[in-house]
Structures are given as C-alpha cells and as structure tokens.
Amino acid sequence: MKQAAIFDMDGTLFQTDLILELSLDDTFAYLRKLGAWEGETPIDTYRNIMGVPLPEVWAALLPNHSEKMKELTDSYFLKRLIENIERGKGALYPDVKKVFGYLKENGFVIFIASNGLPDYLEAIIRYYGLDEWVTETCSIQHVDSLNKSDLVKNILEKYKIKNGAVIGDRLSDIYAAKDNGLLSIGCRFDFAKEEELVHADRVINKLTELQLILP
User: Fold this and answer.
1) What is the end-to-end Cα distance of the chain in Å, rounded?
2) What is the pLDDT of residues 81-136, one digit of tens each?
3) Is residue 27 packed enough to be buried (19+ CB in 10 Å), middle (13-18) or exposed (0-12)?
4) Region for residue 31 given its phi and psi (left: phi exceeds 0; alpha: psi -120 to 50; beta: otherwise)
5) How does pLDDT run across 132-160, given as a tens digit for each residue?
6) Rounded distance, CA 98 to CA 94, Å?
7) 123 in helix, strand or coil?
8) Which of 29, 97, 139, 167 has the greatest CB tally within 10 Å of its CB?
C-alpha cells in the first residue's frame, strides 16, 4: 500500500531564513524608493507569521497600503527570493536528499505542500534537483480556500493514498495532517513555535529522525 510523505517547504526542507532577510530588505528598500515606506524593514513581524500565505503576510506588514501596492510588493519580493535562490544564497536543511532517498526506497511517495508561490517552489526544486525524489510540488495557490488541509486532501485524492504523514514546522501543517487522518510530525527548526508543536503526534529536531518514525 502506498504511503505519502508530505513535506512543508519553508523552515522544513529549505532554510528560508538565509534568503528571507536579504529579500525582505531589498523589497522594503524598493518601497522606500517609491516613497511607500518609512523606517526599518519589519523582519521580526514577518518571522512571527512565517508560514502563512503571502496575501496574509502583506495584510500584516502593509495594513494601510492599497491592494495594488501589495500586489506590486508581492511581485518584487518573489523576484528577489528567486534571484537569491539561483545565486546560491539559500540552503536545504542537512540530510534532505539522504532522507528522501530512504523514504523512496521504503515505498513512500514524496510530495511538497507549501504556502509558497509556484515559481518560488519551482526555483528551489530546480536549483537543488529535488525532482529526483519528489512526485509533485503543490502550492497553496492551487486551492481556492488557501487552506493547507484542502491542499493535502487534494494530493491524497489525486494519487489515491490514504496513509502517511505530513511533516512541517507550523500549526497549519499539523492541522493538515489531522484533518486528513495522517500522522503529524512537527519540526523543531528555525520558525517553529513550541505552543504549536505540542499539537503534533511526533516532534523531530533533525530530518534523519524520520528514519525511526517512518520505517
């Protein structure tokens, strides 16, 4: 019987913090040039909400800006993220490919379900050659509800899979597992919060621990 290993991307597979501040600084410098922002880059605010869909990010960071300005900011930020990925400024967490190889050898079908935008996710997959192991990379933009539980549900239905696990660092990942009857594995990595991880079935401190949980 096929089992799914469904991974979050940011803060789970990809060390987003390595390019996050660079890209956000570039974006808010751009806004300052346009006269659309004053003061420091709100990096701490973004870190607190890391993992939510980008429309929610800009609603929090730019609450008084027009929708047009938020869309412009979103487009510029995405461009900077991709450029920094392609310049090698980011990195996967240790042992991602090793763990993917282990899961593949043991009959797991690997997916990525992320709140990131498709072009951003594709840039990571392409740069690090993850297509070798990942069956499909799914963005939250693929579901009208922008709800990760629905995104995971779509994956399970499309591939006719009923068992497996969702691996991620935020509450949306944990709920996506529970709402679909899967094992929830929380990652105590850069953006994780202890008050969210307590809801996970299991918690790991490094990806290689999956080899003990998903035999």
Assistant:
1) 14
2) 999 999 999 999 999 999 999 999 999 999 999 998 899 999 999 999 999 999 99
3) buried
4) alpha
5) 999 999 999 999 998 999 999 999 999 99
6) 9
7) helix
8) 167
Superfamily holding 3-15+91-213: HAD superfamily/HAD-like (3.40.50.1000)
Beta strands in the chain (DSSP E): 3-7, 108-114, 134-139, 163-168, 183-187, 202-204
- Give the mean model confidence (pLDDT) for residues 174-194: 96
At residue 96, the 3 state secondary structure works out as helix
CA distance 193 to 142: 26
Q: How far apart are CA 71 and CA 149, in angstroms?
A: 25
pTM for this prediction? 0.90
